[in-house]
Amino acid sequence: MRQPLPCLLVLCLMAAGTQDVSASHVRAGEITAKRISNTSLTYEITFTAYYDVENGKGAADGQNNVSFYIGDVGPIQVNRKVPYPNIGNGTTRNEYTFTYTFPAPGRFTISTSIINRNANICNLGGGDSGQIDFFVRTTLIINSSLGLNRTPVLLNPPIDLAAVGQRYIHNPGAYDADGDSLAYRLVVPQRSLSAGKGTDLGVYVPPNRQTSFGPPIGATEDGATPSTFTLDSLTGDLVWDAPTKPCFYNVAFVVEEWRNGVLIGEIVRDMQIIVIESPNDRPRLDPLPDLCVEAGTLIQQTITANDKNGDRLTLTSNSGVYLSDLVPAQNAQFSVVMQNDLGQIKGTFRWQTGCDHIRLEPYDVLVKVEDAAGPNFPNPSLFRKLVDIKTFKIRVYGPKPQNLRAEPVADATARAFRLTWSAYQCQIPGAQIAIYRKVGCSDFQAGVCQPGLSPALGYEEVARVGVGETFFVDDNGGQGLQRGISYSYRLVALFPRQGTLADDPGRLNGGGSSLPSAEFCSDLPQLAPLITHVTVDSTSQTRGVITVRWTRPAVAVPGADAGPSQYRLFRATGLDGTDFTQIATLDTRLQAGVPDTLFVDKNLNTTQNAYRYRVDYYYPNQGTLTKLEETEPASSVRLEQVQGTSAQVRLAWMANVPWDNTNRLHRIYREDRSQPGTFNRIAEVQVQGFETFEYTDDGTDRFVADGTHTITLSPDSTYCYRVETVGSYNNTRVRPALLYNFSQTLCVSPTDTTRPCPPVLALDIPDCATLSPDAFCGQSDYTNTLSWKSSESSATGAACGRGVVAYKIYFARYRDEEPTYLASVLPPPIPLATDYTHTGLSSFAGCYYVTAVNRFGQESTPSNLACRDNCPQFALPNVFTPNLDGKNDEFAPLNCPTFVEEVQFVAFNRWGTKVFETTDATLKWNGKNSAGQDLPSGQYFYQASVQFQSVERDRVPLQYKGWVQLVR
């Protein structure tokens, strides 16, 4: 039996340390806003505050008004509404409401602060919270493009008791009457910084965090460590599992409001958790499932809870579905249907949904169970209530459109359906009926939580009409639909998000879509033929053969004469060819047994080409053959080889045809090399794509019904293949039901797509410092010698292919250029050479890389980049004698300067006066000044800036400074 404590409330523990509480009383609060005018930006703004009347009654009773700020506007003093009821746990709920007209759309922060919080909050300043003021804010974004708006309201008060060692849960019960999306995140509680401004509390510590003044880190209710404190961003469930110390704790979180992907507001709730030491166990609610219903469904959800101690229970529920924001006659109701003294209670949630409840976002319904002292509790006066909370979501979708039908239009020659359906149940202004179509019938049955139509189902939207319409003619945008094809139709109602209701200017339409209608599947009368076969009988460059087959018209053309009809067969080259040329004319009286729906097309290049065919149907009309319509073109099957490996052949095939080749087993054939011309089926492939189908042959025969013909594939051999596609018009009136067509024969060898390993390149580069000054005198062209080695792996360490048969050399004049192809090293010789001499260069400067090429033409990644630069050669003498004796008459570079692109040379006398300058690389200074006058003997100083040919595009010129003695 439970033993009561001498004092259960944490307040008892705090009483001895309580100071002057006349100014400390605020437990929790938040600000909400509601637009109340359809013609002006006038809002009703409410601050809901929760005051501690056990430890701060005087201050709580005296808080008759508070001051608001809207941005920098304020203070706006607002009086308290009366009465202000006591909601239990020593707390009163206080409301301060005023109206305010905003000057223009924009982003506004509404805030208020009160001095002070109630005392002894453990996770705020070590318990000295009575000296910390309370500050909350709400951000409201007014945007005319988003429609009218009001903030969510928080229906569940933020004051509940939590017990040490037991899981605590709080949910704000946020309800947004506009149907906006809500999200939640934890923030740090704030205090006032200045007028209308707040700042985070630096003394705040999360409730489950160990501090010098806070509780020890404990375990969860189930014994796991450490205890946790979380906020679910989607549901708003705030869970502390589990407290370890009796005390007051404050936390804060933001409720974000989103519309059409735009954040349009947020509310901060600063709330208090009162943790007590209690022998009482919290009650438990049974799990509650989320619900999805069509508008018009009556929801009756049973809710049960129990208490293992046998305490008497109270069951309540909060939700926007109980509020008058909804059509009053359709408000939800909650009632308790069973309650006993055995710790059991049962309630019923009942809601008759209707069209006005349709919306994109779900409705949240919060259920709360609270216990009271039962007959087994020794001292009921010491009992303190504990709670459990659960929320469940209700999604209300538009009902399915009903009684959809699709009938061919009355004009038998037209290719269109007339769709009809019953008047839609929910005539919401601005709603539309979306019409979807797909080829083929399906057995898809939408679940109650599957509104709209997923693109994966293959439907495409073809039109939208107003919600009041009940028919639509689908002629494929004027192009006409295809005969012989079954079409599936479905309807979905789409509801607008924007717009207001006249009786409530703050409420938006709900948005979203309905559940899809039942499918209606039909096809058009087949007045014209359908091509059923384009199969390759023989593969040749000049004598290829293709057989084309088509159906007879299923019904006679209305008004046709009794004369012969005519088929005209056209052919184009290529899978998508449009250059149709008539190749045959077949007259017919549509007589049974007459072979008039087959043509063998000969002397084609089926090796290189696919071919596309079309049949035009002419009927007798008043003695004249008149074209009724033409068939959808159909191509032959084209088989190709795609990249594979040296031990595999990878095949791909496609056909451009009006029937459906997907979801069928296509057949793969390989020629028996021991019996040329004999093809064995080696596999059947289930194909699902709509364009290209693939199969990789590794030599294994996976179809054993005609014998096993497994072989080892070699890149040195050639193998021949054919593919047989299997398709259907998916129409029971088209015969044959399955359509078989062969591709051309393709003969190929396995190809290795694995790149060879990149070589490792070296470039013969001499040491410039060891070269003599005249190393390159008299030389006009230069040579670079490259050599490389093969490697066993790529730069990433991955294995790479071998079998190199060639190397490619790439060259760039400058280091910052992308090298371009220079030359190839090809066999012979055998073995393959691994060096290359690049001759005929104007200098050594340049960069190289090398790639390896295997027998399948696969080229490796580049080798390392190897660059060579020139060795600068430029030296000047220190004396010259311009006396015209033919010896040393000019000041010029010693030996032969090489690789010089540009020189800027300046000479000065001993007083620093410039006497000579030139840009001639040979200088050829003859002892005269720039005016052609002889300079006197003496010492002259020079400065030369020399730009050399280099592998670096913008290499800095080398600077030479010195002196020279001029002697006459």
TrEMBL record:
The entry's keywords: Signal
InterPro entries associated with the record: Ig-like_fold (IPR013783), T9SS_type_B (IPR026341)
- The membrane-spanning stretches of this chain are none
Pfam families for the chain? CHU_C
Q: Which domain of life is it from?
A: Bacteria
Query: Keyword Signal on this protein?
Result: yes
According to the record, the signal peptide region is 1-23
Name of this protein: T9SS type B sorting domain-containing protein
